[in-house]
Amino acid sequence: MSTDRAPAAPSPAADEAPLRVLLPQILPALVVGAGSGLLFLGISALSEEFKHVLWEDLPDALGIGGYSSLWMITMLTATGVAVGLVVWKAPGHAGPDPATTGLGGAPIAPGAVPGLLLAGTLALAGGVSLGPENPIIASNIALAYWAGRRLAPAVPGIAWISLATAATIGALFGTPVAAALVISEALAGHPGPDSLWDRLFAPLLAAGTGAMTTQLLAEPTFALGLPPLTDPGWEDLLAALVIASAAALFGLAACYLFPYVHAAARRLRHPMLMLPLGGLVLGLLGALGGHLTLFKGLEEIKELTANIGGWSSGELAKLAVVKLVALLVAASCGFRGGRIFPAVFIGAAFGLLAQALVPEVHPAVAVSSAVLGVLLATTRQGWISLFTGAVLAASPAVLALLCLASLPAWLIVTGRPQLELDDNGRSLR
Question: What is the enclosing helix (H) or strand (E) of 55?
Fold first, then answer.
């Protein structure tokens, strides 16, 4: 006699339980998503206006070239002084040491948020080689956590952190896909009884809301206008494998140097020594590398790729090396900002260098593979590295190449130091 049994029908209570859990998450996710997107857009607009004043209006009024060596050295040093004052005097000292923070993390005190946003805005406008992601994410986490714990104390604190992180990443990239990949990667290390999509429901809604807020108000785009790759061949795969691995090694060099540069900066102890001196060094690097090595790098990448074939291999090598050193200095001296956007510029310059050395390599393959390799080395975030490389190329055919190219690059970087330190100044692995 068969012992097989028909599967039991799910009970109404079992069907309704996920709904009772998920439906109350909709409103908080919408609010956190929209608020995170608006804060990102507000800080971005403010820094752009301030940048216009500092680098166009003011030098024009003084009859000085906005990107002359003298003005770059003066402005970066002045930015170091201004940020140093904020870090020294603002409540909470503008948050923790940025060298020890990544995307997300524990919430900082709400009182430190104004100083962190001010320091980040000054760095963005002043030409420091850092992006907006870390200060904006940290601020949104702090505000969402503080408000959420008071308005809905029954909701676990980690939920507010997850919502704010996802919402801000969605706003930064203008799409919830990047946030979904980052959150999925984080959840993989913290398995739970619920299904993945149950756990992604609220963060994905927050990310989508943040992304739509950015899309409706700013219409961002990461496409570089590279020639599309329509019919990839074996030579394209070989180029992707080699360039991604070489770029990973290049990015890994920065990771090995990071604790030493950071330790040298920390010997100065006081922010009014570290940051002005760091600003002076950044100004000198800007004078050496030119204006494309300043700022977070997104607009500069578009200017770089708009003239493919017009840069010599020596010029591209200089841009990649100077930007890498500028990133190390900025992150080590206490400037508030993220490291992803400058790393993308470094990858783009490295990819164009490879294409200049071997003109037969397709530009989309060269740039996207190099960005993938540098991001894998510096962030150890596999999905976000793949996503960024694919978005920059804006060519679906590149995605398969990048997936394969990520494997040898990952073998190079896994278990190695990354571009983030622990509280004792040691590299994370």
Answer: none
CB atoms within 10 A of CB 213: 23
The torsion region of residue 130 among left (phi > 0), alpha (psi -120 to 50) and beta comes to beta
pLDDT in tens, the chain (429 residues): 444 444 444 444 444 447 777 788 889 999 999 999 999 999 999 999 999 999 998 988 888 877 899 999 999 999 999 999 999 999 999 888 888 887 777 899 999 999 999 999 999 999 999 999 999 999 999 999 999 988 888 888 888 998 999 999 999 888 888 888 777 777 666 666 567 777 888 899 999 999 999 988 887 777 777 888 888 889 989 999 999 999 999 999 999 999 999 999 999 989 999 999 999 999 999 999 999 999 988 888 888 888 888 889 999 999 999 999 999 999 999 999 989 999 999 999 999 999 999 999 999 999 999 999 999 999 888 888 998 888 888 778 888 999 999 999 999 999 898 888 877 778 777
pTM over 0.70? The answer is yes
- Name the 3-class secondary structure at 3: coil
Q: What's the CA gap between 167 and 165, in Å, rounded?
A: 6
Q: Are 345 and 323 in contact (CB under 8 A)?
A: yes
Phi-psi region of 414 (alpha: psi -120 to 50; beta: other; left: phi over 0): beta
Concatenating the DSSP letter of every residue in 335-400 gives ---BSHHHHHHHHHHHHHHHHHHSTTS-HHHHHHHHHHHHHHHHH--HHHHHHHHHHHHT-HHHHH
Cα–Cα distance between 271 and 285 in angstroms, integer? 20
